[in-house]
Structure formats: structure tokens, C-alpha cells
Automatic annotation (TrEMBL):
Gene3D superfamilies named in the record: Apoptosis, Tumor Necrosis Factor Receptor Associated Protein 2, Chain A, Zinc/RING finger domain, C3HC4 (zinc finger)
Name of the protein: TNF receptor-associated factor 6
Record-annotated MATH domain positions: 292-435
Any Gene Ontology CC annotation: cytoplasm
Entry keyword annotation includes Nucleotide-binding: no
Record keywords: Cytoplasm, Metal-binding, Zinc, Zinc-finger
A GO MF label: zinc ion binding
Pfam families registered for this protein in UniProt: TRAF-mep_MATH, zf-C3HC4_2
Membrane-crossing segments per the record: none
Compartmental location: Cytoplasm
Domain spans labelled RING-type: 64-102
């Protein structure tokens, strides 16, 4: 147990492995070397992707700044830059400046670069299908034509058998040959998918407003056919029974109509609310998955929750789960009163179960940083960093949704001094956790 003064707050730290007392920070680093075996029968999909990337990357002087691939029909501009002929011509149809230095440029300033073309034709690269047995070495200019006739190429899947992007419902129409390609798409097009979600949300809100306006117009049109009371300046001394019957009938019809419209509006509002809740949940899950291991937990209603934990010492609060990477480890934060001294809060990290745990290395190995964030004076932040210990159950693969073993500090900070130093703002305490795999 260590005691000290951090940012004006007295903290009494007691690291809790749920198994041992005290904190023993053991820094371990592992080193290794990756190698590729080009034997056709032993290369995995992951290796194949790496090999293809290595062989297909051109040197910087042979790379088109627009398409980022080998120069095809290279041309040289008056400002000294090289592009593919089709790339720069397509660019100049929409812009009148060089895409590299923004100097004024037109098609008359573009000239064939036969010297670079000869240099590229003398380069030799492996066929991308080398991992499936093709040993051809050819010019980068001939790769595309060779792939069309290569006997080792993978037959393209029919369109109806390709994998669809999981964001198809909001407008992403991309299709993929295999699961790794789909995963790369999801990781590389986060901004695109967030934009599609935002547009879909806007469309739902617009449809809701349009439906409400249509219903209002329809109601006004229907009401025009109902009975109207007589004008005030008309002289009516006697109201006949027939007129009373017509009045009652008209009022009854209006009541029935309004009740029906109310039910329709309730159904529309319920459906819209359900869709909005679904989109909000999707946005929250995206934030948790793509936070890259840096998560902010806003612990709301702080005072009431502290009082509840004092009345029930076994009460604990957990944050939503967050990921170290889009397909990485899932963690959550636990906050409760210290079982040794209820004048201190305990902050611990738990590992959670995911659908892709088979693809992760266990036990979890990495560095964890826990920060108690001051809302106005960052120099008062309380931050502690700890290394994981692979021999502890807290970092082994969970068999339940939440690993019952936690790792962290059972006496992280004093409640009294947290309140005195104004760590709680608008009845909210902010805890930041950074998780980095090693």
C-alpha cells in the first residue's frame, strides 16, 4: 500500500488483483520475428494479404499521386510531376490546377514521359497470385492483363454470394469476397459509415415531420365536411328536434374521427421513436467499439449513488463495455466503495466476453492507465498506470459475459478530498481509462 499527495488530493492506493494484496508493476516485453512461407499449402489468408501488399507497392517515383498505384501511360506536367495519363486528364476536366502543388495547369501542359515508361517496364514484380502457386515475374505494366488469364487466380464469386456491408440498411452498397476484406472495409471507412448513419437519422426526422403535416392537412379537410354552427347574427328562436339530431350526429362523427387520428398519430410517433432509439444505440455502440482503448466514463448522480453504496456495501457500478480496437479486447470500469475503508472509492478494470475472443491472444497483456479527471484544473488530475500480470485470473479469457476477477485500486481516492477539491461537477465524476495492448 502506498500513500501520497497527487494534485492536492490525498490518495491511499491499494492495488487489488482480487487474489493478492499490493501492487507489483512488472514490465514485460516480448520480441519475435515474422516470416512468410511461400509454400502454397501452408500460407494463411492473413499471410496472403501481407505478401500481396509487399509485392504491389511501387516506389514513390513510380507511384501516381492520384490513384496511388503504378503509373500507367506516364505523363509529365510542366510543373514537374508525374501522373497516369487517364488520371490527370480526368482530374483536369474538373480542376484547372495541379493536384500536388495547386499550380495552374491544363491539358497543353501535359507531355508523354517515355523515359519513365521504359524504367517501369524494366521493373519486375511477382504475380499477386504467388501465394497460390504462380511464379511469373513480369513488368508492373503487364500485371493487370496477366491477372485476367492467370491460371491461379481465385474465381470471382457471383454477386448474390458476396458478403454485404453491415451498413447496407443506411446506404453502403459495397460487397466483398471474404470476411477479412469485409473487416478491412469496416475499419477503413468509419467516417463514411458515420455519415450514412447521420443522413439516415436526418431522413427519419424529415419523414416524421412530413407525416405529421400530412395528417394535419387531412384532418382539416375532413373537418370541412362536418356540421357548422349557425352564425350569431341569424335569428333562431326555436331549435327543432331534427336540428338537434343533426348536431349530435355531426359531433359524434367528429369525435370518432379525432380518436382515429389520435391512434394513427400514436402509432407513427411510436414507430419513429423506436427507429430513433435504434439509431442512437447504434451510434453509442460505434463510439464504444472505435474509441481505440481511450474511454471516458461520466459517473452521473454521484452523491445519490455514493449514499446508496454506503447503505449497501455490496453495491457496485459498472461502465458500458469499450474496446481496445475495433476487433480487440473488451473492457469495462467498476466503481464501488473500498471494502476496507468506505471513505475511499475503488476503481477496477474487468475483461468482458466478445464474439471474437477466438481471434485474440490470451491472457490479455498490456498497459492500463486510470485517471480521475478534474473538470477545470487538469494539473489536479489523479493518474495511475499499471501493467497487466498474465498469471492472474483477471486477464484470462472470460467464460462469462464479465470476468468476476478485477484489477485496479481498492483505495483510489478519498471521498472527502474529492468533494473538497471539486472533482465532482454538476453531480458528475469523470473517469478516464486508456488501455494499450503489448
Amino acid at each position: 500500500m502506498s500513500q501520497g499527495q497527487v494534485g492536492g488530493v490525498h490518495i491511499n492506493h491499494n492495488i487489488d488483483f482480487q487474489e493478492v494484496a499490493g501492487l507489483n508493476l512488472a514490465h514485460k516485453m516480448a520480441s519475435g520475428s515474422d516470416h512468410y512461407n511461400t509454400n502454397k499449402s501452408e500460407i494463411s489468408v492473413a499471410q496472403e494479404s501481407s505478401i500481396n501488399d509487399a509485392y504491389s507497392a511501387p516506389e514513390a517515383r513510380f507511384e501516381c499521386p492520384i490513384c496511388l498505384a503504378w503509373l500507367r501511360d506516364p505523363v509529365l506536367t510542366s510543373c514537374g510531376h508525374r501522373f497516369c495519363r487517364t488520371c490527370i486528364y480526368s482530374w483536369l476536366e474538373k480542376n484547372s490546377a495541379c493536384p500536388v502543388d495547386n499550380m495552374k495547369l491544363n491539358k497543353e501542359d501535359v507531355f508523354p514521359d517515355n523515359f519513365t515508361r521504359r524504367e517501369i517496364s524494366q521493373q519486375r514484380t511477382k504475380c499477386p497470385n504467388i501465394v497460390r502457386g504462380c511464379l511469373e515475374e513480369l513488368s508492373p505494366l503487364d500485371v493487370e492483363s496477366h491477372l485476367l488469364v492467370c491460371e491461379f487466380k481465385i474465381p470471382e464469386l457471383p454477386d448474390n454470394e458476396k458478403l454485404r456491408c453491415s451498413f447496407i440498411d443506411v446506404g453502403c452498397e459495397d460487397k466483398f469476397e471474404d470476411e477479412p476484406e469485409l473487416q478491412r472495409h469496416l475499419e477503413q471507412h468509419i467516417q463514411k459509415h458515420l455519415t450514412l448513419l447521420s443522413k439516415a437519422y436526418t431522413a427519419v426526422a424529415a419523414n416524421r415531420n412530413a407525416a405529421a403535416a400530412t395528417a394535419s392537412t387531412s384532418a382539416i379537410a375532413q373537418q370541412a365536411n362536418f356540421w357548422d354552427p349557425p352564425a350569431k347574427n341569424e335569428e333562431q328562436t326555436v331549435v327543432r328536434d331534427s336540428n338537434l339530431q343533426e348536431l349530435l350526429k355531426a359531433l359524434y362523427e367528429k369525435i370518432v374521427f379525432l380518436e382515429q387520428k389520435t391512434r394513427e398519430q400514436d402509432i407513427i410517433i411510436a414507430n419513429m421513436s423506436e427507429q430513433i432509439s435504434s439509431y442512437n444505440l447504434s451510434m453509442t455502440k460505434l463510439h464504444q467499439r472505435y474509441c481505440n482503448g481511450c474511454y471516458l466514463w461520466y459517473f452521473n448522480d454521484f452523491k445519490n449513488k455514493i449514499n446508496a453504496m454506503r447503505e449497501n456495501p455490496h453495491l457496485m457500478y459498472y461502465s458500458p463495455g469499450f474496446f481496445t480496437s475495433p476487433n480487440g479486447y473488451k473492457l469495462c470500469i467498476r466503481l464501488n466503495l473500498s471494502p476496507k475503508d468506505n471513505h475511499y472509492i475503488a476503481v477496477l478494470i474487468h475483461v468482458m466476453k466478445t464474439d471474437h475472443d477466438d481471434a485474440l491472444d490470451w491472457p490479455f497483456s498490456g498497459k492500463l492507465s486510470v485517471t480521475l479527471v478534474h473538470p477545470t484544473q487538469s494539473y489536479r488530475n489523479i493518474k495511475e498506470t499499471m501493467m497487466t500480470r498474465p498469471e492472474l485470473d483477471a486477464f484470462k479469457r472470460p467464460v462469462q459475459d464479465l470476468n468476476p476477477k478485477g484489477f485496479g485500486y481498492t483505495e483510489f481516492a478519498s471521498l472527502e478530498e474529492i468533494m473538497e477539491q471539486d472533482f465532482v461537477h454538476k453531480n458528475q465524476l469523470t473517469i478516464k481509462v486508456q488501455a494499450q495492448t503489448v
